[in-house]
Fold each of these.
Amino acid sequence: MTTDAVPGDPRRLLSEVHDLAHRVRRDQRVTWVALLVLAVVTFAAIPFDWFGMQVDCAPTGECEFSRDGVLYYWPPALLVAYAAIAYVYRRIARSRGVDARVLPYAITGAALILVFLAAWIAVRVYLADNPPPTEPLPYGWLVLDRLVAPWGIIGVALLVLARLERNTGLLLFTLGYLAVVLVPIDFGWQAHQSVQAEFLPQQVINGLVLLLGAAGFALARRR
């Protein structure tokens, strides 16, 4: 029995295989679709959060609020968003002759929604038997709260998508997005506006970051 040698330079053949694998990974990426859908969901959440927030202010000026609009809007909205992203991803990828590894991302997103719900329920149960804290929470607790919030779990799930796509650009974008989420930017808005309006600038900024990311990745794809 003999083995026929494959003609050609082995290093050139290895390079061609590497280039082919790179092109396949590139054709599997529809990153702008995921970011665009998430941006739309983020902007659509603003009226739900605004009108779904209950604010009770005492004569002393101290106010208590509950953001039930977040609870009623985000879980179903994100489930629909991840389903839509998975469908469009696979449809576009298959039109290019490849398949898309997007299902683990959608499953991770759905699992993180359960984490958000569990954290929300735990806080509500705790506050039902204990008075709300009168002093500001430690900074670490605030960061954790923002991380398990809907806009935080969006970033965590995007890290999974970056890993699946081996997409360094998406990884860097997601780290930047999480920095914006975990260190809110408000430009001093809360000092002059209502309790509802305090959350508006950060929500708009989160949506704009996702929208600009979608535009950037779409432009990079076209180029």
Amino acid sequence: MATITLDGLAHSYLDAPSKEDDWALKEMTHTWRDGEAYALLGASGCGKTTLLNIISGLLEPSRGRILFGDRDVTHAPTAERNIAQVFQFPVVYDTMTVRANLAFPLRNRGADAAYIAERVQTVARMIGMEDVLDRKARGLTADAKQKISLGRGMVREDVNALLFDEPLTVIDPHMKWELRTQLKSLHHEFGHTMIYVTHDQTEALTFADRVVVMYDGRVVQVGTPQELFERPEHTFVGYFIGSPGMNLFDAELSGDRAAIAGHEVALGARYPLSGSAQLGIRPEYLHLGGEGLPFTVTRVEDVGRHRIVRGELAGTKVNVLAGEGVEIGAEPRLRFDTAGINIYRNDWRVAPEGAA
């Protein structure tokens, strides 16, 4: 296991990148702690898989270094990095049995036969394949083959890191939940450093200790699920995390107040800027009632435990979460809970005065 350090790392697929958009990964410096479970989260094309392939050694970065602990592995091949990687689509040996597939990484390293048998049995139980250990992989379903890939990645206990590149794409929804639970259990039991690439916020938030949110080739925030929800450091994090995502309003700031479409909103704190900015607030922190800003309801969606009220405030689309007992009314007003307000300029969060 190892601490993973990205030191001034950047990558371009072009021979001579000359402008910012030429870089698939913009320069970044981050340290990912030994033994933690990370999720790389972002939309397709944001650089997640590029970064994972650099960590695994399948790709050499254009700039910067990558360290495992104190060892510089920037130019080291994958075989020397002592990692296990599970890809989006299953990679199995069709002519081998499930047992032989799971045992392959251990046999390849000359592990003791008794240990191999014990470890294969343990992993097979975790992925629910004990009853098919002696079947050939050929003919198994795609999700069964992906479970073999997951098991083969998990069978070694001595790896520096376990890397997963959207491994549950071909798995049915119920099995996705089960395998995520098993991966978390494995992490808690053995303490491997795990990095899990996904575009699915549910997968990321339920799997990881810390989520690495990527946007346009940048890491825009690394944090716990709670930190990402309560204090998105970039407007993309607010939009991408949560369902529905964060509401954004153009605002004019002055001290501890903001004007939205000519209506004053208390911010609950003073900010070290004035003039044009964006006010971000999640649907959970907007409340409907007889006081506040004028709000036009366009649709109400009942999703069981609450309703999503969709509407507009001065031409801006707004989502509000309302409890089942909340009266919406014909002409509701919109009230902002100051506990949920974040202020942004140029898409980056601005901390209030006096904040730690």
